[in-house]
Amino acid sequence: MSEAALIAETPTPRTRASIAEDLRNAGLQAGDVLVLHSSLKAIGWVSGGPVAVLLAFQDVLTETGTLIVPTHTSNLTDPADWQNPPVPADWVSIIQESVPAFDPVRTPSRHMGIIAETLRTWPGVRRSAHPHVSFAAWGRYAEQITEDHQLAWSMGENSPLHRAYQLGAKIMLLGTRNCTSLHLAEALSRTVPTTTSAGAVTQRGRRVWVSFPDWEYSTDKFPEILDAFCAQHHIENQLIGSASTLLLDQPALVDFAVKYLRQNPRPAE
């Protein structure tokens, strides 16, 4: 959508103050630990863009709260596994040997949205060091959430998502239905296959290509899980600006999803 079209569809400019008011009306509070998935365009035209949005979140959460966003880097996964699109077979070894190692400071996120990418470079933000599924966090528990993100079982126990779960986090799906916390449910359910992942990291000051075990994550069941959870708990969409938004209890959703996945396992291939 062009900026002109976005302006035409926005009844009044969204501002730091109006977004903060919407967030409070939706149930976000000071001190909350929040895992945020977001679409800036879904909010409408925002005076100040992603910076104004993040300032609004900080106004509501305050420094006693914590804001967490996914800063994943699918472009740093093993090119031998790429499908959207695949690369020629004779490119694979070249990419494996040449792609720069993941760097929590320098490496941009991919397909995470401009709000998450803006927070990644925000003063005081910490980012976990996983080459594929890092998370960035601001606020009280930022260091606790992001430290020591192990390569293996990347979104399972002791991952940033699991630490948020242990802190009783909330999830906000702002203009999107992407929800990485359901990958934590996949890991905890033990119902999904395992796989071997690989990527470039820095170890002892040297770039190395490493392999590690992980779950074979899939989003196939996520829409039905979200719909079933919201129906059971009578959760309705709310508006942040123009963005249809869900505010969810992360532990409750994950526990529900673990049970759902065990009752409805992925069909064997």
TrEMBL record:
Give the transmembrane ranges. none
Q: Which UniProt keywords apply?
A: Acyltransferase, Antibiotic resistance, Transferase
Describe the reaction catalysed, as an equation: a 2-deoxystreptamine antibiotic + acetyl-CoA = an N(3)-acetyl-2-deoxystreptamine antibiotic + CoA + H(+)
Top-level taxon in the UniProt lineage: Bacteria
One term of GO molecular function = aminoglycoside 3-N-acetyltransferase activity
The stretch of residues making up the signal peptide is: none
For this protein, what is the EC number? 2.3.1.-
Q: Tell me, which GO biological process terms does this entry list?
A: response to antibiotic
Family the UniProt entry places it in: Belongs to the antibiotic N-acetyltransferase family.
The molecule here is called Aminoglycoside N(3)-acetyltransferase
The beginning of the lineage is: Bacteria, Bacillati, Actinomycetota, Actinomycetes, Propionibacteriales
